[in-house]
Amino acid sequence: MNLEHYFDYNATTPVDSRVLEEMIPWFSRDFANPSSFYSAASAARRAIEEARSRMAALIGSRSDEILFTMGGTEADNLALLGCVHPETAAGDPHIITSAVEHPAVLNVCRALEKRGMSLTVLPVDSEGRVNPEELRKALTPRTVLVSIMHANNETGTIQPVRELASLAHEKGALFHTDAIQTVGRIPVDVEELGVDLMSVSAHKMYGPKGMGALFRRRGVKLKPLMWGGGHESGLRSGTENVPGIVGMGRAAEIAREEMQDVMENVASLRDRLYLGIVERIPELLFNGSRKHGLFNTLNVSIRHIEGEAVLAMLDAEGFALASGSACSSKSLDPSHVLSAIGRNHADAHGSLRFSLGRHSTAAGVDALLDVLPPVVKRLRAISPFGKPAGRGR
């Protein structure tokens, strides 16, 4: 794949060559089980703890507050399901989330509702942000957990997590945030955010797939999802994925060192792309928040066409991007995120998500801008949705 033509970094990122280099020995030469007692095993254990320290340094936590998981989805599940203790399961416990959460959170909350917990799903405004006042009104003495994502994977909208977490704590509730789209991309500090639990994924920050982590603040009690040998402080049993953990640690270290330069470069490319699309294509709707949005994400609805048809034609030209979320791209239903911000069925289906990253270039952006407008024009000519009437916003 030509990385200059890759515009789907919110779905996944290529593994950094420096990450892969550090991982390789742990697949073969240094393959020992870190739970064994000989020197090679001790070396594997030290590698895990070094990776834990690197991950902690990235988010401003203590090393012992990092739990490694097999990915972001498991981290979300452990955070939410692990908070349902016997002592909180009685008395109609209450959980709160938002309408734009990733399915790894939203579906878990719905599963908990089926188990007897009360659930409140907060609405969002037209930019996809939760109004703190809505959370304040929803909180009750029965609320045990609030889970609101840090930034949305489809629109890039960043939530006011610090304020939301403070409100939850006033009622004695724990606060979890899915920070899978932000950790490694923008500065994230758990002390500044004030969260109790935070989910992270390696493959969103140029690390390996199948690796994640959960920040758990000291004193927060969780119950495990699996029982076994008691690995990861008894909360994630199973022989550790040493190469994956090492890779995640190295990716965290690189992100910490290079984040500012990447942010500045990618933000300028995103703006170049947005201005180019606005100049060349009429009848657009911008999805997200210009003021409170990720620097690398652009989501637009191109009216009078199907986003999936655009993707297919761009794929034939060697370009990779998304319509909605990669985790639900096979669904025929409109994006729940775009529906939540008020987009109708047709406009939601006409959405395209462009997400840029380290390997994005001005040449790649310009090449996409050369190809996209003719594709849109061709599809609109045969569209059953009507003819464009003027330039959008």
Walkthrough of the structure:
- With about 400 residues, this protein is of the alpha/beta class.
- The chain has two domains: about 5-10 and about 260-380, Alpha-Beta Complex (Aspartate Aminotransferase, domain 1), CATH 3.90.1150; about 15-255, Aspartate Aminotransferase, domain 2, CATH 3.40.640.
- It has 13 helices and ten strands.
- The strands form two sheets. A seven-stranded mixed beta sheet has the order 1-7-6-5-4-2-3, with helices on both faces. A three-stranded antiparallel beta sheet has the order 8-9-10.
- Helix 7 (about 160-170) links the parallel strand 4 (about 145) and strand 5 (about 175-180).
- The protein is globular.
- The relative contact order is 0.17.
- Mean pLDDT is about 95; it is low at about 390-393.
Give structural attributes.
393 residues; alpha/beta; Aspartate Aminotransferase, domain 1; 2 domains; seven-stranded mixed β-sheet; 13 helices; 10 strands
How much helicity do the residues have? 25-40%
* Physical arrangement of strands within the biggest beta sheet: 1-7-6-5-4-2-3
Name the CATH superfamily assignment of the largest domain.
Answer: Type I PLP-dependent aspartate aminotransferase-like (Major domain)
Shape verdict: globular
Q: Could you describe the largest sheet, including whether it forms a barrel? A: 7 strands, mixed
CATH architecture of the largest domain: 3-Layer(aba) Sandwich
Indicate the radius of gyration in whole angstroms: 22 Å
Any idea of the CATH topology of the largest domain?
Aspartate Aminotransferase, domain 2
